[in-house]
Design goal:
With 135 residues, this protein is mainly alpha-helical. It has one domain. 73% of the residues lie in helices and 0% in strands. It is built from 8 helices and no strands. Helix 2 packs across helix 7. It comes from Lentiprolixibacter aurantiacus. This is Glyoxalase.
Length: 135
């Protein structure tokens, strides 16, 4: 393992709920061992990126009901390909070379898992975006 890989792995938070067991599928193992820690580590950047996305869309998000705000998060990530690719880059850029090689072997399924996790993380923090309008 090279120095970059060691440094990246050393920065990541440990997630006690993200167990890795032999009976897991390779995708689930990658999700728990790599995606969860990277997405948690990149949380502040993902939140900042979504705030910027809201601002670029004329702050219409703040006029929506809570239910529609949650749908807005989901639609932004699922339908806006440029935004989605930007988020993916923020996460993939934190992979080690070894993790990247595992990722490219099944990128389609792993992208789906990755984006679903980001959607849920942003939805779980929807109050952060609600509070931003008050500032």
């Amino acid at each position: 393992m090279n120095q970059r890989s060691e440094d990246l792995l050393g920065l990541r938070p440990t997630i006690s709920k993200a167990k890795v067991t032999p009976e897991m599928s390779a995708d689930e193992r990658f999700q728990n061992a790599t995606l969860r820690p990277v997405i948690k580590f990149q949380n502040d950047l993902l939140v900042a990126a979504f705030r910027n996305y809201i601002r670029k869309h004329k702050n219409g998000f703040y006029e929506l009901s809570m239910e529609k705000r949650l749908a807005f998060v989901e639609n932004a990530i699922q339908k806006d390909i440029k935004f989605r690719n930007s988020l993916k880059g923020m996460i993939i850029g934190q992979f080690t070379i070894e993790e990247y090689e595992l990722y490219i072997a099944n990128s389609s399924a792993l992208n789906k898992r990755m984006m679903n996790m980001v959607i849920e993380r942003l939805k779980d923090q929807i109050q952060v975006f609600t509070a931003a309008v008050l500032v």
